[in-house]
Design a protein that fits this description.
It contains 15 helices and 9 strands. With 397 residues, the protein is α+β, with helices and mostly antiparallel strands. It has a 9-stranded mixed β-sheet, with helices on both faces. Strand 6 and strand 7 (260-270) form a beta hairpin. The radius of gyration is 23 Å and the shape is elongated.
Length: 397
């Protein structure tokens, strides 16, 4: 019987506290094997699930390209490959992996991997009337944000992915590719359509401050916190006209790091009747004063936001944290770009760029779940100890 991936954590990171996992969760290879296989049955030398699992094993070890994934797999001990379900003698070439990744169903791949991560993270109970959270139950944040895979540029444009990411763990629980010659707005509702938003606050930047998006989040049982800018001119004008001078200061933070000091001041106003946005309950003003220690330059920026959270549903400090954590999701993009060299990748064919991005999301999510705070350190560990990574994917020692 395969061991549950989280069970091996005490051997990797003794300080991590782990909750009991679902007893019947299949291995990742079994989940990946459910993805439609685009290859012809004639000539298949290996199953899809084990091959994708070993590809993830390579990404966990720091592989940043198809060629490096192929070299990692070829360099593994034959017994290790056999334990993952791949014949010990099979060594797929980078071109073979590229053709396979380019033809995979990106939606099916993201659905399988994101569901697996969400199950491991135990994001919450099913949405049934009997177990909805009490009014004071802590809320979790879910950031909706997009990222362009710059190295995927072709004559038809670049691959752009829209993802829903948990604030506290950087786990991507849903991802969709934005249609060519379109933008993120039409992809928002399909992205969240299969997620239970009970007890969740969906945060998004100004592009997604749309009436239909707000209605969808509320209908799904969640709350929203959206940034407001010039694409909603009437709403922005009404927010600016609120009596901010008379409003009390609700939260203040003072942080230093990365060569700068940033002071944030947040004020909250209960919205008046007639605010032109569905289900809006509170308006937020954030004044951000940032001083660059190297240049001495100080910039002040005022940001407005609107939320469906009613007064008293969460504390002012928690509301400020939700806003900061949405912006901190950029750290996930930074890891993919710097540690995994995503923008330097020249994978362009078919769905291959999306599959590679999904493997990186999966590797980072697994590392975060088991307690790694430094992804580079996790890569160093699993490059040197691939058997530990194999255990992490749900295989016995």
């Amino acid at each position: 019987m395969p061991s549950f991936p989280i069970d091996v954590l005490t051997r990797h990171l003794e300080h991590v506290t782990i909750t009991d996992p679902p007893a019947d969760l299949p291995t990742l290879a079994e989940i990946l094997d459910t993805i439609p296989d685009p290859r012809s049955r004639r000539g298949r030398r290996y199953r899809l699930g084990p091959l994708l699992a070993l590809s993830l094993l390579a990404v966990l070890g720091g592989a940043t390209s198809l060629a490096k994934i192929a070299r990692f797999i070829a360099g593994y001990d034959p017994d290790l490959r056999a334990r993952a379900g791949l014949p010990g003698t099979v060594r797929p070439a980078a071109s073979t992996l590229g053709r396979l990744f380019a033809r995979l169903d990106g939606d099916a791949f993201d659905a399988a991997t994101c569901t697996y991560l969400a199950t491991l993270a135990d994001c919450g109970p099913p949405a049934t009337p009997g177990n909805r959270p009490a009014e004071r139950t802590p809320l979790s944040g879910l950031a909706v944000d997009g990222k362009t895979l710059r190295g995927s540029r072709t004559g038809d444009g670049t691959v752009h992915l829209l993802a829903a990411t948990c604030h506290n763990t950087q786990i991507v629980v849903a991802q969709r590719q934005v249609e060519a010659k379109s933008n993120e707005i039409p992809a928002f509702t399909p992205l969240l359509s299969h997620l239970d938003l009970t007890g969740v606050v969906v945060t998004a930047d100004a592009l997604h401050t749309q009436h239909d998006h707000a209605r969808h989040v509320i209908a799904a049982g969640g709350h929203y916190l959206f940034i407001v800018k010039g694409n909603q001119p009437t709403l922005l004008r009404r927010l600016k006209a609120l009596p901010w001078r008379e409003a009390v200061l609700n939260d203040r933070t003072d942080e230093q790091g990365h060569g700068r000091r940033e002071i944030r001041r947040m004020k909250i106003c209960t919205t008046r009747p007639g605010l032109p946005f569905p289900h809006a309950a509170q308006a937020i003003q954030i004044k951000r004063r940032r001083t660059d220690h190297r240049t001495g330059k100080t910039t002040i920026m005022t940001i407005y936001a609107v939320t469906s959270l009613p007064p008293g549903r969460t504390t002012h400090a928690q509301l400020a944290t939700l806003i900061r954590e949405h912006w901190s999701i950029e750290a996930l993009h930074h890891i993919r770009d710097v540690t995994y060299r995503e923008d330097a990748s020249r994978v362009r064919t078919g769905t291959a760029p999306r599959i590679m991005a999904g493997l990186r999301n999966l590797a980072i999510g697994l590392a975060r779940l088991i307690g790694w705070t430094n992804i580079a350190a996790a890569i160093d560990h699993y490059r040197s100890h691939p058997a530990d990574a194999l255990q992490l994917l749900g295989f016995t020692t």
